[in-house]
Amino acid sequence: MDDRKKTKEQLLTELGDVRQRVAELEGLEAARQELEEMHQRSVDIVNNIQVGLYIYRLEHIDDDRTLRMTFANRAAEAFTGVPARAVVDKTLDENFPGLRDKGVPQQYAAVVRSGEAIELEDVHYGDNRVIQGWFRVRAFPLPDHCVGIAFENITAQKVAEEALRKSEERYRIISETTSDYFYSMLVLPNGRMSVDWVGGAFEHITGYGEEEIRDLDKWMAVVNPDDLPRAREVARTVLSNRPYVFEYRIRTRNGEMRWLRDHTRPIWDEDRQRVAAVIGAVQDITDHKRMEAALEEAARVRTLVETAGAAAHEIGQPLQVVTASCELLQSKMNPGAPQRRLVEKIQTAAERIDGIVYKMRNIERYASQPYVGGEHIVDLHTAAVDPRGKGRRK
């Protein structure tokens, strides 16, 4: 009887152990499924970002020829024209042999060894599969001797920059050999200057007749107040028998602000040992200044976009961990658990941060808004545009 009782107790104990093991296995299976879902979400995100991404593994740490591609996203296919199936599992030299002469594989291997990310010089590349183009490339370290390569095809930008450079060069050559109007001024013994004559498109550009600016002081009255100190300094320089090229703004008769470039040259009188006259050739450079302002704006936007994109990338990765952790914690909690509300608050804050990151990734122009202390900060709501064409994201 005692033996049977003992056997029954052992069976119950063993049964309890089995049930506990089954529960552990079920928990592990649920965790495995959740990890698979998180992995799939990560793959979906990577495949939908508008940046090309390759991942290489350095199979032998001292040999950059063993960089073998393990992953390529959809944007990489679009930027290069080469499908992922044609490059994955092959070495970098097999895929893009021309990059070795540019030192690219060597730099990728150095990232793996040092653990430090780098920005490459803009890379020009093309072969029998990849259409000739320009690429902006960033390499960053990943675990297991891997390196991530994020890149964009910037060929259109490079073509536009080259066209602008050629346009500016043509403008410079033309502007050096032509002028919009000319003038001559007489210098009186007391050092005052008066207009002798004006030719060319003076009245068309300024709206004033020659008689209205006969005296230099009258001309100074139409110069932008911010440029007046330099204008007076130029006048003193010219009277000391030194030529000068000066850019300044005027207010035309109709109230428009225009930029002028004045090439001023003194005429020395040997008998009187002083400057007797001043001649000048003036160009209207308003359109050129507007172009410069547009280029500065484009550069500011580019810097803002690159900085915001990098920040969004750095924030986005840990944010995914926070969001996934909140979802996991909620799935493990009872609806009435006291900690659940705190987790929900964390998840709400993470979603708000995700909205900010989304805007940072989609900045297309520079816009600012007032901030405390008279400062200005980037207005993400105005600067960010929904890439799906549905207007600015709230």
Question: Keywords for this structure?
Answer:
13 strands; 11 helices; five-stranded antiparallel beta sheet; Beta-Lactamase; 48% helix; disordered C terminus; alpha+beta; 4 domains
Q: Report the order of strands and helices.
A: HEEHHHEEEEHEEHHHEEEHHEEH
Give start-end ranges of low-pLDDT stretches: 173-177, 388-394
Note the total helix count.
11
Number of domains: 4
Instruction: Output the radius of gyration.
Output: 35 Å
Helix content: 40-55%
End-to-end C-alpha gap? 77 Å
Taken from the alpha-carbon principal axes, the silhouette is elongated
State the CATH superfamily name of the largest domain. PAS domain
Based on DSSP secondary structure assignment, what is the total number of beta strands?
13
Characterize the largest beta sheet: strand count, sense, and whether it forms a barrel. Answer: 6 strands, antiparallel
Q: Tell me, what is the CATH class of the largest domain?
A: Alpha Beta
What features would you describe in this structure?
The chain is α+β, with helices and mostly antiparallel strands and 394 residues long. It has four domains: 1-48; 49-152, 2-Layer Sandwich (Beta-Lactamase), CATH 3.30.450; 178-284, Beta-Lactamase (2-Layer Sandwich); 292-383. 48% of the residues lie in helices and 23% in strands. The protein is built from eleven helices and 13 strands. The strands form three sheets. Strands 1, 2, 3, 4, 5 and 6 form a six-stranded antiparallel beta sheet that branches. Strands 8-7-11-10-9 form a five-stranded antiparallel beta sheet, sandwiched between helices. A two-stranded antiparallel ribbon has the order 12-13. Strand 10 (257-269) and strand 11 (274-284) form a beta hairpin. Helix 9 (286-332) packs antiparallel against helix 10. 14% of the residues are buried.
